[in-house]
Amino acid sequence: MTRTHVAALALLALMGTAAAAQTTARVAVAPGSKLWIEGTSNLHEWSCKADTLDAAIDVDAAAVAQLATSAPQALKHVQVKVPVRALKCGHGAMDNNLYKALNADKTPNVNYILATFDAAPGTTKDSFTLHTSGTLEISGKQNPITVDVAADRLPDGSIKATGTVPIRMTDYGIKPPTALFGRLKTGDEVKVHFELTLTAKAIAMAAGQP
């Protein structure tokens, strides 16, 4: 293969990458977005909040302007990544036991990926529910999940999306953590809550508006 052929192939590859990039736009998630986990134990309920998360929302570049009127048609892909050690339970021993249970050293992130979106009946400009399907990865194991995501448009034009994912830790090969020398034993079932906010400015930037 000549240098000319190599150069031509490289150019075609770059053109293909550029074309693909133009089909989607990424909307930044507001810093105030959050994720937390709630569970039970034989002694009391517990909650662990993530002090940081990495969320990316990809939308159809041609339809991103529709976020002002019909968000479900524009959404393409959502990924939420949470460092395991970013989860804080308010008790050092519980934190360490949670990190151990989630195998933080080998699988440092909890990943939540949504791939399909279907608007529920009753969708309006300012309030809608999405039936979503995707994948949740915890401790290196993935399982398919379905989640209803409720979204509301705020007075300033921002969009806030909330949802709850009920899971069993044992479905991900996780042994429910304990504390207080085994006296506190957590339940297998937990709920992962998330609240993601897209600001009006971020939506406008993704649409190429000033």
The amount of helix comes to 10-25%
Largest sheet: 12 strands, antiparallel
User: What is the top-level CATH class?
Assistant: Mainly Beta
What is the structural class?
alpha+beta
The SSE order reads HEEEEHEEHEEEEEEH
Spans of at least 5 consecutive residues whose pLDDT stays below 50 are 1-22
CATH superfamily annotation: Lipid/polyisoprenoid-binding, YceI-like
Oligomer: single chain
Instruction: Give me the CATH architecture, please.
Output: Beta Barrel
How many distinct folded domains? 1
* Overall strand count: 12
Average pLDDT number: 76
Termini Cα gap: 46 Å
**Beta-strand percentage range:** over 45%
| Apparent shape | elongated
Descriptive tags:
210 residues, 4 helices, disordered N terminus, alpha+beta, elongated, 47% strand, twelve-stranded antiparallel sheet
Give your account of this protein's structure.
With 210 residues, this protein is α+β, with helices and mostly antiparallel strands. It has one domain (23-206): Beta Barrel (Lipocalin). Helices cover 20% and strands 47% of the residues. Strands 1, 2, 3, 4, 5, 6, 7, 8, 9, 10, 11 and 12 form a 12-stranded antiparallel sheet that branches. Strand 7 (109-119) and strand 8 (127-138) form a beta hairpin. The longest helix is centred in the first third of the chain and has 20 residues, at 3-22.
